């Protein structure tokens, strides 16, 4: 089990901050075997696929290079021009292949851990020149794993090479019986497919190395419990800062709540200790919803905002306490309070009709029914 300098075991998985800091320093999982496999196998396949193009271009370059007039032979400048043209043609012939190799090299390098470049890694470190540290790296577990991988690659590629030569030996022995074109086609096919099969053995090495590199990277970033606690303190800040943040969050929540009071249909009060604001839209809601609630100073603010917004304020101590203690913000009231709130809303709607059309004023409902299990004295 990995330990830190204090002797504590690193048993905790790395946090998101630890992973982010590691990436910022350029420490990301990398697999050289994946890079080698991609470049080798992709390069061989691309070379085989472009072999016809290369053959035609080489034929044209050779044909052009050896087609020289008598006048050009004795003209040094014309020979230099021909050489330049041949080099340009060769470069343009190989350019697509070079581009494919560059793309494969870059893609295979960043596919595992992403692109992470750090200035720290670019700076020279004198510690890397230390002979003692070099000897330690030579006899480390990581060096041992590299030796095992090298032996595995040698055994796989060597064994497959022997197997391919044994199975294709008769084809090679028949080359002397063929004409030049047939022999060239046969040898090209045998060599091309043999190299592809040999390069494919690297897939097995990469398939083992990639999970190992991911595991090893995570293992190196593991943390002790003390490191996790220290990081939490650093991330969350001091207690007074956290309390200030919570205070600001409460203030923002209260402001949002107060913005809902003018939209309420009715405010029920204790009358002074508690206040709750209800809203009901029969087209959208199955039951009345609590949009604001508070006690003491917050209750006073709710009553003040409701009065300024001409929202009806009704004193019903038992119902106000029942709603306050049983219902959270933006939730529907309990089913046990449906009847009491229905009577209250009916009065509010009658009051609005009276204010608009006149007539006899409605009577304020009294003794609103509140079930025993919802009462709070």
From TrEMBL:
Stretches with biased composition (Basic and acidic residues): 1-12
GO BP annotations, alphabetical order: bacterial-type flagellum assembly; protein secretion
Annotated spans, Disordered: 1-32
Annotated transmembrane regions: 34-55, 94-118, 139-166, 186-215
Cellular component annotations (GO), alphabetically ordered: plasma membrane
Ribonucleoprotein keyword on record: no
Annotated keywords: Bacterial flagellum biogenesis, Bacterial flagellum protein export, Cell membrane, Cell projection, Cilium, Flagellum, Membrane, Protein transport, Transmembrane, Transmembrane helix, Transport
Membrane topology listed for this record: Multi-pass membrane protein
Keyword hit for Membrane: yes
Principal localisation: membrane
Pfam family, one: Bac_export_2
PANTHER family, sorted: FLAGELLAR BIOSYNTHETIC PROTEIN FLHB (PTHR30531)
Role: Required for formation of the rod structure in the basal body of the flagellar apparatus. Together with FliI and FliH, may constitute the export apparatus of flagellin.
Family: Belongs to the type III secretion exporter family.
Designated name of the protein: Flagellar biosynthetic protein FlhB
Organism of origin: endosymbiont of Riftia pachyptila (vent Ph05)
Encoding gene per record: flhB
